[in-house]
Amino acid sequence: MSEQLSREELAAFREMAASFAKKTIAPMLAHESPDGNLEMLPAILHQGQEAGLLASPRPEAAGRETGIWGSQTLTHGPAVSAMLLEELAVVCGGVAMCFHAQGMGTLPLLRAENPPSAPENVAAAFSEAFGIPGLFTLREPLQAAPAAVETVAREAGDGFELSGEKTFVYSAGRPEAYLVFARSAANGDWTCFLVPADAKGLQARNAGARAGLRAAGLEHLRFDRVKLDRSLLLRFQVPNREAVLEQLRLNLIGLSAIAAGIARGALASARQYAGERYQGGDLIIAHPAMQTLLAESDARIAACQAGVSRACQAEGHAEVRFREAVRAKLIIMPAAAGAVTDCLQIFGGYGYMEDYRMEKRLRDVSVLKSAGGAPRELRAILAQMIQEG
Amino acid sequence: MLPTHMKQASQNLSLIGRRLVAEREGDLWQEETETLPWPLARQRRLYKNFADQFIRPRALEVDKHLAEFDPWPLWHEAARRGFQTEFLPWPFGTAKLLNLASMPSPLFATALKAEEFCAACGGMALMLLAHDLGMAPLLLSGTWTGFNWLRRIYSRIRAGENIAAAFAITEPGAGSDVEETEGAARARILSRAKKAPGGYLLNGRKCFISDGGIASYITFFAALENEGVESWTCFLVESPMKGFSRGRREKKMGQKAGDATELILEDVLVPEDHRIGPERSGWALNRNTLNYSRPAVGAIAVGIARGALERCLEFCRATRLGNKRLADYQDVQIELAEMTIQLTAARALVWHCGRYRLPFQGVSAAAKCFAGDTAFAICHKAMELMGDHGYLHGHGVEKAMRDSRLNQIYEGTNQINRLALIEDAWETDFARP
Ligand SMILES: Cc1cc2nc3c(=O)[nH]c(=O)nc-3n(C[C@H](O)[C@H](O)[C@H](O)COP(=O)(O)OP(=O)(O)OC[C@H]3O[C@@H](n4cnc5c(N)ncnc54)[C@H](O)[C@@H]3O)c2cc1C
């Protein structure tokens, strides 16, 4: 059971993130390029660190506890981080993704019984060749259901040797280390390693041009017999399989919260525009066609928020909690994307141009639909769970 | 092959029974092409070959490095094949009489062209196609002046000059209002034409004009002095005219290779012989141009969606997941089938417009809306099926998604088009007691 924060505490957190987004992130988007001035990103992340919003594995860092997916997650559950991500994403989904990715790389280190000393910027590497594994593979990485986990750690000398590939690794830009989820050659179980970015045999390749969330880093990793010291193997209080499910669960919740935030930002902009633009002899907000779009968007956003909240509150066994997050992402993504595209429509031709940032919101949310678990992967997991009753 | 496969099982039928079974030899594209009268089938192949050779290979590079894209070489390749002068037959243009004779509407060939070009790249296709839109009022005005200009412009294109046309109705303060009856009646139109010795003085600003950045001829719609949009008159503005300038080029989400540019007219003296049609005929001319162009915009959507589906299919065939290709999973097949069904339905509606001798507002709007909405949904599905790969630029599907989104906006938003359908059928269908 997680400890509950009081209403006031939650409101204060929310206010802090909203004001950070407005004051620190929004200026990045004042720049004339499709995703804003990305050169400002390091400064934004730095300020995020100082404000205690960016999670960090460093013991002295403020964000270690209060940051998004910082150790507060272990005491209070995921709701606070989800709320903070939503607030950041109201302004920029890409920057929110940076905070999320950093948190995903950090939290297992904070959760570990034997945390190795880690650099500041850590990214979690989970997906393989084609997305996230199926349910049986999640339980047992050797199960080819449909494909086994191919990234394997073997005992070698007094340490390990890691080989394989990880794809679509999101980060807050230039990671200094990766948290890699792999299969143990010895017992076929999940293992989790902290792998320094400069480890010999590790190749990181930029994933190349993409539709959205461009503020965040995105890489593919290749491990060619990367030698790892025994101290880099993380041990958890719970079985590794459960730690993996928890990691995936929080990832799905975070991504869903970002989508909800993007949709909220879109609705706020559309509401404002609809109250300023005249067509058809009236403000367009007076036209039922526009009211329909606004109302549908509003309802969808509320549904997204409810979905995130339900997933955050889930209790019970790791798989039960994971299931809620899978459901949430599956249903939230189309709802959020639907709201964003409807809000874009309210801008007419201007929605298609970079100026109002609506097209960016649509690009960002479109990426989220598949990132960290595409609909067919989520459906497959859920269907399996339903079959099992 | 299993004995239950139709090909095998049909051998058990009687001779006549066997003859009644359709034998599928080609792919869907070929089968559909075969349903067309042969001149149009041939034309469709020509468009496809051109698109595959000149447009498709450059689609991603142009989208990514737009600043380096010079539209003219592609333009001339298309023009050399007669694709930019198709509104008039020989000796003035390259329209094929057999094409015109084989379908009731001249629209059909344009719709085929739009789909083929857009399956390769929505942006480069828009650059080529917006020219036809710019020329359409000259033809649809039904006047000698219009015909004469069409003829003259075509002869310059055929001589290899850098000549393109654009269609300019939208103003910063009037977008939907110039696409719709009721809005128009209350529109704030700022582009004005004032009688002057020798012609008209034109002032005003148009925005979002496709090919506005490269066009040397613009069919420009303006209201007469002190009158409303009902006085709209169409003028052929030439870019070298004194007082004409181009403003900002918009930064678009997709269909990037086709520019959307602001046009500014400051006391441009337009000679009398540049007036297309009588004074005050512009509003009707604009509306009828949209009736002709909206099915083509529907075809643009169909093409973009087809491009996404083709690329997605290629990916699903090439990608292995476990011991199977992605394309061999049943749930993937269901999605691919759904996309194909939607695409076929959208194309059917676009082609349906071509069955009318004269396209009308209701049917054109229906095709434009349905194809636009469907294309966007198909592109999203394609992205999702490809998982994280779907949003990578290199596969071309996220580009199709970005390209397709425009189809719900231009040529009247899909809301305005839906209202156009109602308006068109109000007297006859909807308001009947
Ligand atoms: C890339 C691009 C290329 C284009 N190319 C050309 C071109 O070549 N030539 C040209 O002339 N124009 C062109 N356009 C303009 C295009 O046709 C307009 O953008 C479109 O008609 C919408 O107008 P608007 O952008 O002013 O939106 P608005 O009219 O401001 O509409 C905003 C919102 O209000 C809604 N709305 C408006 N009025 C009503 C009403 N009465 N009832 C209910 N809802 C209403 C709309 O549906 C929309 O959702 C282009 C636009 C784009 C984006």
Series of H and E elements of chain A? HHHHHHEHEEEEEEHEEHHHH
Mean pLDDT across all residues of chain B, rounded?
A: 96
CATH topology type of the largest domain in chain B: Butyryl-CoA Dehydrogenase, subunit A, domain 3
The Rg value of chain B, from CA coordinates, equals 23 Å
Shape of chain A: globular
Class of secondary structure makeup of chain B: alpha+beta
Characteristic terms for this protein:
heterodimer; A: 389 residues; alpha+beta; Butyryl-Coa Dehydrogenase, subunit A, domain 1; Butyryl-CoA Dehydrogenase, subunit A, domain 2; Butyryl-CoA Dehydrogenase, subunit A, domain 3; 3 domains; 7-stranded mixed β-sheet; two-stranded antiparallel ribbon; 12 helices; 9 strands; 50% helix; 15% strand; B: 433 residues; 8-stranded mixed β-sheet; 51% helix; globular; binds flavin-adenine dinucleotide
Please render the helix and strand layout as text.
The complex is a heterodimer of chains A (389) and B (433).
Chain A: H1 7-29, H2 41-50, H3 63-66, H4 72-76, H5 79-91, H6 93-111, E1 122-125, H7 135-139, E2 152-156, E3 159-171, E4 177-184, E5 190-196, E6 202-206, E7 217-228, H8 240-274, E8 278-279, E9 282-283, H9 288-313, H10 318-346, H11 358-370, H12 375-388
Parallel strand pairs in A: 1-4, 2-4
Antiparallel strand pairs in A: 2-3, 3-7, 4-5, 6-7, 8-9
Chain B: H1 6-9, H2 15-19, H3 28-34, H4 38-55, H5 59-64, H6 71-80, H7 97-102, H8 107-120, H9 122-140, H10 144-158, E1 165-168, H11 181-185, E2 192-196, E3 199-210, E4 217-224, E5 233-238, E6 244-249, E7 260-271, E8 275-276, H12 282-318, E9 320-321, E10 324-325, H13 330-353, H14 361-385, H15 397-405, H16 414-430
Parallel strand pairs in B: 1-4, 2-4
Antiparallel strand pairs in B: 2-3, 3-7, 4-5, 5-8, 6-7, 9-10
Helix pairs in contact in B: 4-8, 8-9, 8-12, 9-10, 9-12, 12-13, 12-14, 12-15, 13-14, 14-15, 14-16
